[in-house]
Amino acid sequence: MPKADEPNDKAPQSLDARLAAFEARRAAEKPVKAASEKAQQDGYRLLADLIGGVLVGLGFGWLLDHYVHTSPWGMVGGLLIGLGLAIFSIVRKAMKLSAQASAPSPQGNAGGDTGDGPTVPKQKRD
């Protein structure tokens, strides 16, 4: 009678092996998807900062024009100041994001990182 139970014992083992392989594939895909989604969120955040800076600058310019009667110079100045500050802010945030992306990851050798810390370029010798 033990021979009749052998096929029934192999089925759960086979199912466990297939489930483990599926979970391994899914776990391997997850970091790539998470990194892509984070990059997309960062891009939208930078775009929102640009649009917000321009709109805030225009708003302050309009208020200046409305109360001081300097139309249209308040809006022009507000637009330029808002755009300049927004670009300055975006460049700073983009530099931080770039530094974070090139920093060693705690998850191992992702993206060619050796985990030895920041890479220092070799100096030329004369």
TrEMBL record:
Residues 99-108 have a biased composition (Polar residues). The keyword Transferase does not apply. Belongs to the bacterial AtpI family. Keywords: Hydrogen ion transport, Ion transport, Membrane, Transmembrane, Transmembrane helix, Transport. The chain crosses the membrane at residues 46-64, 70-91. One of its GO terms (cellular component) is proton-transporting ATP synthase complex. This is ATP synthase protein I. A possible function for this protein is to guide the assembly of the membrane sector of the ATPase enzyme complex. InterPro entries: Atp1_alphaprobac, ATPase_put. GO terms for biological process: proton transmembrane transport. It comes from Caulobacter segnis. It comes from the Bacteria. Residues 99-126 are annotated as: Disordered.
